[in-house]
Write a structure and sequence with these properties.
alpha/beta; Rossmann fold; 3 domains; six-stranded parallel beta sheet; six-stranded mixed beta sheet; 11 helices; 12 strands; elongated
């Protein structure tokens, strides 16, 4: 499909190409009624900026004369650590962008008065390719004019726009942890999985819950089945710990597959020795925790988001997709002392 040019938009509106260029770049020095007409015509004609020309223009404005690749924007809700895996996601995305000759700039929505203010900055800097980090809270809400951007998201939460997305495969990870426990010689593993009290991780929670229930019903003889234990965690540690220990003592699994190190803390709280008395693996772990389980692949997810964004740019996919693509990264297992092989 032939790309619509700024000159065609200018001819349609009856203004100069320079005026169209200023409006589409978000410059404030154009009459509001003129800007509205230009934006309406651009949407009607299906105009989208050429990413490579945008990169060249950005280099001109920098004034350094150096030819650089595309610059993408990475949008996070917050600067501080409650943003979850944001630093790792960004690190993976930045490294992958550099590998492919591009750049990545980090933007934090909390730094702006609202989404409109952020959008003006993005457009003024010529950024049209965006990666949206997970939004786990309703506020601040990200409400850009998506028709002006080519964007993908990391993760899938209720508070993110319905963009093409990259996420870790939580269902696959749950299956993998179960298979590893059996391969390592454990005969009666049991799931004890935390579910989030708020719908922040609804898709991941449902995937893990579905996998655990499927395995309970189909992968063991009835006499060996241990019903999964699902719990939520809030301000109180004592209540879920008490319920977990009651489940553990009732069913006596030889390995516990938990959500994270929380369930291991429950065992230690009850003076159950890991791994002497019971093996333990987590569905979300990291290499520095010393806990066997499924590795949080936040860096790999960030890198995959860059690849998906570049594909969307090459195929001219702007705005919110009519049919959403979800890319799930294969789970990765990490050995650890909490789940040794049984002889």
């Amino acid at each position: 499909m032939k790309r619509v040019t700024q000159a065609q938009v200018a001819l349609h509106v009856g203004v100069t190409k320079a005026t169209v260029s200023r409006v589409l770049a978000g410059a404030p020095c154009v009459l509001p009624e003129t800007a509205a007409r230009v934006n309406a015509a651009a949407r009607q004609l299906g105009y989208h900026p050429d990413p490579m020309l945008t990169a060249v223009a950005a280099s001109r404005w920098r004034g350094d004369g150096k030819r650089r690749g595309l610059t993408f924007g990475f949008i996070s809700p917050f600067r501080h650590k409650r943003a979850g895996m944001d630093p790792e996601n960004f690190a993976g995305a930045e490294a992958r962008a550099v590998e492919t000759g591009c750049c990545l700039d980090h933007f934090f929505l909390e730094d702006y008065r609202n989404s409109a203010a952020m959008q003006r900055t993005l457009l003024a800097r010529g950024l049209r390719g965006l990666i949206v980090a997970p939004f786990f809270e309703a506020q601040p809400a990200l409400t850009l004019d998506w028709s002006r951007f080519c964007a993908v998201s990391i993760g899938i939460t209720p508070y993110q726009p319905p963009l093409h997305a990259v996420a870790q495969d939580s269902y696959d990870g749950t299956i993998m942890a179960w298979r590893k426990a059996l391969d390592y010689g454990y005969r009666r593993p049991g799931f004890a999985i935390m579910l989030h009290a708020l719908p922040t991780h609804a898709e991941d929670d449902e995937a893990r819950q579905s996998a655990a229930l499927f395995l309970h019903q189909n992968d063991r003889a009835p006499s060996e089945r241990i019903p999964p234990f699902f719990h939520s965690i809030g301000d109180s540690f004592a209540a879920p710990a008490r319920d977990f220990i009651a489940w553990y003592r009732r069913w006596k699994p030889d390995a516990v597959i938990g959500f994270n190190r929380m369930e291991r803390e429950f065992l230690l709280h009850a003076k159950v020795r890991v791994p002497d008395q019971v093996g333990f693996a987590a569905l979300t772990t990291q290499s520095d925790l010393g806990i066997a389980g499924i590795v949080e692949a936040a860096v790999d997810v960030g890198a995959a988001a860059v690849d998906l964004l570049q594909l969307a740019l090459r195929t001219n996919q702007w705005g919110l997709p009519k049919k959403r693509i979800r890319h799930y990264l294969e789970a990765q297992w990490l050995d650890g002392p909490t789940l040794p092989r049984r002889r």
